[in-house]
Amino acid sequence: MIAAMMTLTMLGSLLGLLLSLAARFFQVPSDALREDIMELLPGVNCGQCGYPGCGGAADALVAGTAAPTLCPPGGAALARTLAAKLGRALDASGGPPLLAEIDESLCIGCAHCGKLCATDAIIGAPKQIHVVLQEACTGCGVCVEVCPTECLQLRPQKPTFDSWCWPKPALVGV
Amino acid sequence: MRLHDFRGGVHPPSQKHLSAGRPIESLPLPSRLYIPLQQHAGAPALPVVAVGQQVGKGELLARAQGATSAPLHAPSSGRIAAIGEFTAPHASGLPLPTIILETDGEERWAERESLPDPFELSPEEVARRVGAAGIVGMGGANFPAAVKLSKARQAGVHTLVINGAECEPYVTCDDQLMRERAGEIADGIAIMLHALQASHAVVAIENNKPEAVEAMSDACRHDARIEVLSLPSRYPAGSAKQLIQLLTGLETPAGGRGTDTGLLVHNVGTAYAAHRALRHDRPLISRIVTVSGGAVPEPRNLEVPIGALAADLLAYCGGVSDESARLLMGGPMMGQPLPGPQVPVIKGTNGILALTPDEIGEASEPSPCIRCGRCVEACPMGLLPLELSKRARGEDWEGIQALGLSDCMSCGSCAYVCPSHIPLPQYFAYARDMLAAQRREEQKARRTRELMEQRQARFERQERAKAEAAAQRRAAKKPRTAVLEADED
Asked: Where is the 4Fe-4S ferredoxin-type domain (chain A) (predicted)?
């Protein structure tokens, strides 16, 4: 009876010790920053950034090999949060955001573009004229490359009544 | 009632003598009226008429859409010429969806229903009728009046404040309305008191309008619930929050509403419109507009159908005498610079001004901030305009929000006193628009994420459906093979 108890106690403490040593020496380092960035990214692994999924993009961002503007679906809002998170300057020289537009006179309704769009922003049945829903388009440009007639182009957006902004006062020496 | 005080404020030259005391004249009916679908806070109205349709005066053109919205009515009889886009009365000069009405000059009213006594109706019904008449805040805020009335009744507002302060320089439309139509306004106030179930009303008028004070006092004498008060003239006493502070000494909390203090502020024009709607079944289709400014040869107070072009009004007042004049909708302190005279008058338009460069002080070039702090003294909201503008210039959006940009009401007092002529309100407008653009971007990013997830889910669903179909096919095949095997046996 006592021998059995002793054996089990010793076995338990030995295994416990082994486990705690294993946790210390074989630990896989998990990066808190990477986790945070994964939270921010869309997380659907569309691959538009050129990295293998959002995990790959997060690794590149942490390593500093990718710019905070890498994610087309995230847009300017994500670029800003990423830049703030990583403490990096945001290259704001991009100008106004470009969105895809279809020239109806050239569209042949091949329906190649709609299949690729990550946000389902292009609608239209085969052999019918297609149209881009501007409020869903992220301007990633995947559709532009597959269009056989080049009717899909990225164009800067004209301001509307709701999106118009007062210009910054241009003052010299103030 | 003992008056309190509000902080800051300025005394710009009132220039009201240009148009004050000029009787209200009707603008000759223009041949075309341009009625934007969005001329109120909230969702745009939804057209219910078709192109080519004949409409009577006062007929419904577009119905309210959603809880905060307002319907539009035909300002005159005629034919709907088009429903398209037309330049908005806004600094951007961008178009808004607009109903274009070709008037026939007959002024034929649409059929009207006979009206019950408004005091027999329930408060909810009075508010509903105010909303159905398309009445919005006539002081320039354009907030649907019915929404304000119902919300205030639920919040238990005890006092209705009728704002006749009209503190903007040049503008005299409320002054003239009170002088000429005080009886109708008093009746409108009684109707609004009924809709609010409030016990007391105060008509607040700046003391530079003694005739209006007298006329309103006379008209309200028979009703003990209505008190007429003369306020000291100081800009911006006519702002709702400052007016409440003047009357009660209570400050509206940051981010809060005026009704949090138990008071509701409505413009005199709104009370007049409520009287017209509830007593005569007339929707809001016209308003009084002051046409004034140094470049206007004959300043006037005009009763104008909604949708008349600023050019029509200016032409009736002798045209614009100075080529370099700046056109404004509203007063010179808070008004909207207009892209040109070809923009329509909307429900909240209280003035069309053509100001000469001298009046605006365009000659003075901005120079660096000397941190004199005069803007801080002038700010009625207790903000630090010099610090706010510094952050707007440096694009420090978090900093500017922390300093209370959202409490700024763009009254322009800071710019008025600035010895360096720094365009402070433009900086704040720029910052506000930039923050709004950021919010839109964030919303779009969230939406994108949703769309991508939905697409992913759809693919998974399709995969699953395919796999199930394949499994079914296999299952359907199996018994047959079993049968075949049985046959072979």
From this structure: 98-127, 128-157
